[in-house]
Give the backbone structure.
Amino acid sequence: MLDVSDEVRAEIGDDEADQLLGGAHTPDTYDCTSCRTPGDSLSEPTSTVLFVGEETAVLAFAHARCIPSQVVPVSEEQLLGAVRSISQAQGSGLPTQAGYPQPADPLGHAGAPAPVPVPQAAPVPAPAPTPAPAPQSTPVTPTAPAPGEPAVLGVTCGLVLCGDNGHAALVVEPTGPVGRPGTVTGADEFLPLLSDHGFAPITDVDKPPARLAGWSVLVAMGRLHAILQPSAVGNSAWWQAHQPLVVTDAWRAAAARQSEVIMYAAPAGTIGRQPREDLLRNALDRAAAQGLLVAASLPLAGT
């Protein structure tokens, strides 16, 4: 019932992965690192989740329905702080804090920390963080990348009203034109590239878009980690936060309630940074009216 992804196997090695699959180091019961509720690796599909810092890694377990098996890069300070917090909580008999990963002990005791030395964490892409609110209510032209530098993606979280329901949404906007691989014309192909992957043009923001199979939004430990796309070896990160992004309780509750997140995307300079959700909605409506908005509903991975 245990899943060890190829990327987790690459980090921990074939021997350790085979021992996990054989049950040697796998706890029978665990606290899911995503939803924080008990899990049973003997009776329900279970994912291995490897939190990787600069010099340390912690192996955790999760319900497969909550989060796929994967490697989650985190800072060394956050990882060691999680281990200290769990150790102190266990020593005092207190529950562990929900904001930290729940590692698993190599001897199979659920909840005990298990730091594992790793040679060096793989480099993590560094896209733009969630844009800070801007004081103006009109679209803001983002700073263009320097000549020769690729555009990066800005991601904004917000609740968007579709009909009578508030939906958790991500608005993705690059800092400059995005071309097709190998092209040097400078033409912006951001929306056509997404359309090739199944994102549909939006003319009315009040209507939620169709769900896109294979893609998902990864939320773990109450933070936004990545937007995942299908690949030949499973899911890979289409966008990954340089530091996991904090989301509001209302956004997280809406995502969990509907088990999905709407991803909107627009060309550079279309939406801008908006200080309030009503202004963000106005910007989305303008983009849709101009034919500059695509979207899809993506399943939620994690909670």
In short: Residues 88-147 have pLDDT under 50 and may be disordered.
